[in-house]
Amino acid sequence: MVKEILKGMKNIKFKLLEVCKKVLSEKIDNLKSVVDEAQKSANEYGQPKDRYDSYRTQLLRKRDMFAKQYDKALEQLVILQRINPDIEYNTVQFGSVVYTKNKKLFISISLGEVPFEDDIFFAISPNVPFYKAIKGLKIGDTFEFRGVKDEILNVF
Question: For tag attachment on the chain, is the N or C end more exposed, with fewer CB atoms within 10 Å?
Fold first, then answer.
């Protein structure tokens, strides 16, 4: 019975990790398309017509802005790939799945709401204030964040 429960938890973490990778990969693909499109528009526009022509500069700024987001998304993918779904945790830490009375969390990267098997998990980064409030807690521990009390129901 215990082995089946542990296997189920590993399965949840493995599937959740795959869903997060898929969501992030789609984001990466979209950002790549936007960066390419902005570069294409700037190239098609050509050189500035005079020194007051800022349209090309705006196109290049847009490209650079999305390029930064693209680079950050690639970095997040590398971080996700560091998570080993086979590791079981007893405390809240990077790579753990956490059930509280109010939320279901995946401590990984900041993706926000992640739809998962008729449920919603929140993928959060270890850099957010909420994580700092629950870091190191174990099953049965209670905590308060922004005036709301909660309890850790499960960690794996």
Answer: N
Contact call for residues 65 and 26 (beta carbons, < 8 A): no
Residue 33 belongs to what domain range?
A: 2-81
Collapsing DSSP states into helix, strand and coil, what is residue 82? coil
Q: What type of residue is 149? A: K
Residues 32 and 102 in one domain: no
116 neighbors 15 (Cβ within 8 angstroms) = yes
Contact 112, 123 (CB under 8 A): yes
Number of domains within the chain: 2
Entry pTM = 0.83
Residue 87 lies in a domain: no
How many helices (H) does the chain have, and how many strands (E)? 3, 6
Predicted pLDDT of residue 56: 78
Q: In this structure, are 62 and 37 located in the same domain?
A: yes
